[in-house]
Automatic annotation (TrEMBL):
Hydrolase listed as a keyword: yes
Membrane spanning stretches: none
SUPFAM superfamilies tied to this protein: NagB/RpiA/CoA transferase-like
Enzyme Commission numbers on file: 3.5.99.6
Lineage: Bacteria, Pseudomonadati, Pseudomonadota, Alphaproteobacteria, Acetobacterales
Gene encoding the protein: nagB
Stated name of the protein: Glucosamine-6-phosphate deaminase
Length: 244
Protein backbone atom coordinates (compact mmCIF):
# COMPACT_ATOMS: atom_id res chain seq x y z
CA UNK A 1 0.00 0.00 0.00
CA UNK A 2 1.28 3.43 -0.96
CA UNK A 3 0.53 6.39 1.32
CA UNK A 4 0.87 9.94 0.00
CA UNK A 5 0.70 12.88 2.43
CA UNK A 6 0.27 16.36 0.98
CA UNK A 7 0.62 19.75 2.63
CA UNK A 8 -2.91 20.89 1.79
CA UNK A 9 -6.31 19.40 0.91
CA UNK A 10 -6.05 20.98 -2.54
CA UNK A 11 -2.86 19.09 -3.25
CA UNK A 12 -4.52 15.83 -2.13
CA UNK A 13 -7.45 16.44 -4.48
CA UNK A 14 -5.05 17.17 -7.33
CA UNK A 15 -3.09 13.96 -6.77
CA UNK A 16 -6.30 11.95 -6.87
CA UNK A 17 -7.57 13.75 -9.97
CA UNK A 18 -4.25 13.13 -11.69
CA UNK A 19 -4.49 9.40 -10.98
CA UNK A 20 -8.02 9.23 -12.35
CA UNK A 21 -7.03 11.20 -15.45
CA UNK A 22 -4.08 8.87 -15.95
CA UNK A 23 -6.47 5.89 -15.77
CA UNK A 24 -8.77 7.44 -18.36
CA UNK A 25 -5.96 8.34 -20.74
CA UNK A 26 -4.12 5.06 -20.32
CA UNK A 27 -6.98 2.67 -20.96
CA UNK A 28 -8.85 2.15 -24.20
CA UNK A 29 -12.09 1.56 -22.32
CA UNK A 30 -11.66 2.74 -18.72
CA UNK A 31 -14.11 1.52 -16.08
CA UNK A 32 -14.08 3.76 -13.03
CA UNK A 33 -15.56 3.12 -9.62
CA UNK A 34 -16.76 6.48 -8.31
CA UNK A 35 -17.74 7.89 -4.93
CA UNK A 36 -19.64 10.86 -3.54
CA UNK A 37 -19.17 13.42 -0.77
CA UNK A 38 -17.56 16.80 -0.23
CA UNK A 39 -14.06 15.45 -0.87
CA UNK A 40 -15.12 14.02 -4.20
CA UNK A 41 -16.73 17.30 -5.31
CA UNK A 42 -13.30 18.92 -5.37
CA UNK A 43 -11.80 16.03 -7.30
CA UNK A 44 -14.58 16.13 -9.88
CA UNK A 45 -14.13 19.89 -10.30
CA UNK A 46 -10.53 19.26 -11.29
CA UNK A 47 -11.53 16.55 -13.78
CA UNK A 48 -14.16 18.84 -15.31
CA UNK A 49 -11.54 21.57 -15.61
CA UNK A 50 -9.27 19.21 -17.56
CA UNK A 51 -12.19 18.19 -19.76
CA UNK A 52 -13.06 21.82 -20.45
CA UNK A 53 -9.43 22.49 -21.34
CA UNK A 54 -9.61 19.73 -23.94
CA UNK A 55 -7.07 17.51 -22.18
CA UNK A 56 -9.40 14.79 -20.86
CA UNK A 57 -11.85 12.78 -22.97
CA UNK A 58 -14.59 10.84 -21.18
CA UNK A 59 -16.23 9.50 -24.33
CA UNK A 60 -14.93 5.96 -23.85
CA UNK A 61 -15.30 5.90 -20.06
CA UNK A 62 -17.79 3.84 -18.10
CA UNK A 63 -18.36 4.30 -14.38
CA UNK A 64 -20.09 2.58 -11.48
CA UNK A 65 -20.88 4.41 -8.26
CA UNK A 66 -20.38 2.79 -4.90
CA UNK A 67 -23.81 3.36 -3.44
CA UNK A 68 -27.24 4.99 -3.38
CA UNK A 69 -29.90 5.66 -0.76
CA UNK A 70 -32.93 3.38 -0.76
CA UNK A 71 -36.10 5.29 -1.54
CA UNK A 72 -34.59 8.29 -3.31
CA UNK A 73 -35.30 8.53 -7.05
CA UNK A 74 -32.62 9.94 -9.38
CA UNK A 75 -34.49 13.26 -9.49
CA UNK A 76 -34.22 13.75 -5.72
CA UNK A 77 -31.55 16.41 -5.03
CA UNK A 78 -30.20 14.29 -2.17
CA UNK A 79 -29.77 11.15 -4.28
CA UNK A 80 -26.30 10.16 -5.40
CA UNK A 81 -27.56 9.86 -8.95
CA UNK A 82 -28.45 13.56 -8.85
CA UNK A 83 -25.09 14.31 -7.18
CA UNK A 84 -23.18 12.67 -10.02
CA UNK A 85 -25.15 14.55 -12.65
CA UNK A 86 -24.55 17.84 -10.85
CA UNK A 87 -20.86 17.40 -10.17
CA UNK A 88 -19.57 15.32 -13.10
CA UNK A 89 -21.81 13.65 -15.67
CA UNK A 90 -23.51 16.79 -17.00
CA UNK A 91 -20.16 18.54 -17.45
CA UNK A 92 -18.20 15.95 -19.43
CA UNK A 93 -18.67 13.98 -22.65
CA UNK A 94 -19.41 10.61 -21.08
CA UNK A 95 -22.29 9.20 -23.16
CA UNK A 96 -25.66 8.83 -21.46
CA UNK A 97 -26.04 5.39 -19.95
CA UNK A 98 -22.31 4.87 -19.28
CA UNK A 99 -22.43 6.40 -15.80
CA UNK A 100 -24.07 3.83 -13.51
CA UNK A 101 -25.57 4.40 -10.05
CA UNK A 102 -27.57 1.75 -8.17
CA UNK A 103 -31.33 2.19 -8.42
CA UNK A 104 -32.55 2.96 -4.93
CA UNK A 105 -36.21 2.80 -5.96
CA UNK A 106 -36.09 -0.56 -7.75
CA UNK A 107 -39.15 -2.70 -7.09
CA UNK A 108 -36.89 -5.63 -6.15
CA UNK A 109 -33.80 -4.33 -4.38
CA UNK A 110 -32.08 -7.71 -4.19
CA UNK A 111 -32.53 -8.17 -7.94
CA UNK A 112 -31.14 -4.67 -8.48
CA UNK A 113 -28.03 -5.59 -6.49
CA UNK A 114 -27.55 -8.73 -8.57
CA UNK A 115 -28.07 -6.72 -11.77
CA UNK A 116 -25.45 -4.18 -10.66
CA UNK A 117 -22.89 -6.89 -9.97
CA UNK A 118 -23.60 -8.43 -13.38
CA UNK A 119 -23.19 -5.04 -15.09
CA UNK A 120 -19.77 -4.55 -13.48
CA UNK A 121 -18.70 -8.00 -14.65
CA UNK A 122 -20.03 -7.36 -18.16
CA UNK A 123 -17.95 -4.17 -18.30
CA UNK A 124 -14.81 -6.19 -17.59
CA UNK A 125 -14.56 -5.28 -13.90
CA UNK A 126 -13.54 -2.07 -12.20
CA UNK A 127 -10.23 -0.47 -13.13
CA UNK A 128 -9.63 2.35 -10.64
CA UNK A 129 -11.97 2.56 -7.64
CA UNK A 130 -12.14 5.93 -5.88
CA UNK A 131 -12.92 5.74 -2.16
CA UNK A 132 -13.59 7.97 0.81
CA UNK A 133 -13.80 6.86 4.43
CA UNK A 134 -16.67 7.44 6.82
CA UNK A 135 -16.58 7.98 10.57
CA UNK A 136 -17.46 4.32 11.16
CA UNK A 137 -14.52 3.32 8.96
CA UNK A 138 -16.79 2.37 6.09
CA UNK A 139 -15.87 2.34 2.42
CA UNK A 140 -18.98 2.62 0.32
CA UNK A 141 -21.75 2.10 2.83
CA UNK A 142 -20.14 -1.04 4.24
CA UNK A 143 -21.06 -0.42 7.85
CA UNK A 144 -19.55 -2.52 10.64
CA UNK A 145 -19.37 -5.40 10.47
CA UNK A 146 -19.05 -6.05 6.74
CA UNK A 147 -17.62 -9.30 5.45
CA UNK A 148 -14.60 -8.85 3.21
CA UNK A 149 -16.23 -11.10 0.60
CA UNK A 150 -19.55 -9.18 0.62
CA UNK A 151 -21.18 -8.21 -2.66
CA UNK A 152 -23.54 -5.40 -3.69
CA UNK A 153 -26.43 -5.52 -1.26
CA UNK A 154 -28.98 -3.63 0.85
CA UNK A 155 -27.55 -2.29 4.13
CA UNK A 156 -28.90 -0.45 7.16
CA UNK A 157 -27.02 2.77 7.83
CA UNK A 158 -25.39 3.33 11.20
CA UNK A 159 -26.73 6.25 13.24
CA UNK A 160 -23.23 7.74 13.13
CA UNK A 161 -23.31 7.71 9.33
CA UNK A 162 -26.79 9.23 9.23
CA UNK A 163 -25.59 12.07 11.47
CA UNK A 164 -22.47 12.52 9.34
CA UNK A 165 -24.57 12.77 6.17
CA UNK A 166 -27.34 14.92 7.60
CA UNK A 167 -26.02 18.24 6.25
CA UNK A 168 -27.67 17.53 2.90
CA UNK A 169 -30.94 16.78 4.69
CA UNK A 170 -31.36 20.04 6.61
CA UNK A 171 -29.04 18.83 9.40
CA UNK A 172 -31.75 16.40 10.46
CA UNK A 173 -30.43 12.82 10.78
CA UNK A 174 -34.00 11.53 10.90
CA UNK A 175 -34.47 12.64 7.28
CA UNK A 176 -31.49 10.57 6.11
CA UNK A 177 -32.73 7.25 4.69
CA UNK A 178 -32.20 4.28 6.96
CA UNK A 179 -31.11 1.98 4.15
CA UNK A 180 -28.85 2.10 1.11
CA UNK A 181 -27.54 -0.08 -1.69
CA UNK A 182 -23.78 -0.46 -1.66
CA UNK A 183 -21.07 -2.33 -3.46
CA UNK A 184 -19.71 -4.93 -1.09
CA UNK A 185 -16.18 -4.98 0.26
CA UNK A 186 -15.50 -7.97 -1.96
CA UNK A 187 -16.74 -6.08 -5.01
CA UNK A 188 -14.47 -3.15 -4.17
CA UNK A 189 -11.44 -5.37 -3.57
CA UNK A 190 -11.80 -6.85 -7.06
CA UNK A 191 -11.00 -3.47 -8.63
CA UNK A 192 -7.56 -3.43 -10.22
CA UNK A 193 -6.53 -0.29 -8.34
CA UNK A 194 -7.86 1.47 -5.22
CA UNK A 195 -7.44 5.16 -4.40
CA UNK A 196 -8.69 6.33 -1.00
CA UNK A 197 -8.71 10.06 -0.25
CA UNK A 198 -9.21 11.65 3.18
CA UNK A 199 -8.57 15.22 4.30
CA UNK A 200 -9.12 17.22 7.45
CA UNK A 201 -8.65 16.81 11.18
CA UNK A 202 -12.01 15.09 11.48
CA UNK A 203 -10.71 12.07 9.55
CA UNK A 204 -7.45 11.70 11.49
CA UNK A 205 -8.64 9.16 14.07
CA UNK A 206 -10.43 6.84 11.66
CA UNK A 207 -7.56 7.07 9.15
CA UNK A 208 -5.17 5.96 11.89
CA UNK A 209 -7.47 3.07 12.80
CA UNK A 210 -7.78 2.03 9.17
CA UNK A 211 -4.04 2.13 8.52
CA UNK A 212 -2.62 1.03 11.88
CA UNK A 213 -5.41 -0.93 13.59
CA UNK A 214 -6.21 -4.62 13.23
CA UNK A 215 -7.49 -5.69 9.83
CA UNK A 216 -11.08 -6.33 10.79
CA UNK A 217 -14.57 -6.53 9.34
CA UNK A 218 -15.50 -4.06 12.07
CA UNK A 219 -13.66 -1.36 10.05
CA UNK A 220 -14.25 -2.11 6.39
CA UNK A 221 -11.57 0.38 5.25
CA UNK A 222 -8.88 -1.90 6.74
CA UNK A 223 -9.62 -4.28 3.86
CA UNK A 224 -7.71 -2.06 1.44
CA UNK A 225 -4.51 -3.22 3.15
CA UNK A 226 -5.17 -6.63 1.59
CA UNK A 227 -5.17 -5.18 -1.93
CA UNK A 228 -2.17 -5.45 -4.26
CA UNK A 229 -2.46 -1.87 -5.60
CA UNK A 230 -3.94 0.55 -3.08
CA UNK A 231 -2.99 4.21 -2.68
CA UNK A 232 -4.09 6.37 0.24
CA UNK A 233 -3.91 10.13 -0.26
CA UNK A 234 -4.05 12.29 2.88
CA UNK A 235 -3.44 15.89 3.78
CA UNK A 236 -1.34 16.73 6.85
CA UNK A 237 -4.40 17.11 9.06
CA UNK A 238 -5.85 13.70 8.19
CA UNK A 239 -2.41 12.09 8.62
CA UNK A 240 -1.68 13.72 11.99
CA UNK A 241 -2.35 10.74 14.28
CA UNK A 242 -1.13 8.10 11.83
CA UNK A 243 2.26 9.86 11.52
CA UNK A 244 2.96 9.90 15.25
Amino acid sequence: MKIIVTDTPGQAFQRAADMIAEEIRGSGAPVLGLATGRTMESIYQLLVRDHDAGTLDFSGTMSFNLDEYVGLPPTDPNSYSHYMQEHLFSHVNMPAGQGHVPNGVAADLDAECARYEAAIRAAGGLGLQLLGIGETGHIGFNEPPSAFDSRTRVVHLDDVTRRQNSAMFGDDPERVPERALTMGVGTILEARRLVLVAVGEGKAAIVDEALNGPISEAVSATAIRLHDDATVILDEAAARIWRR
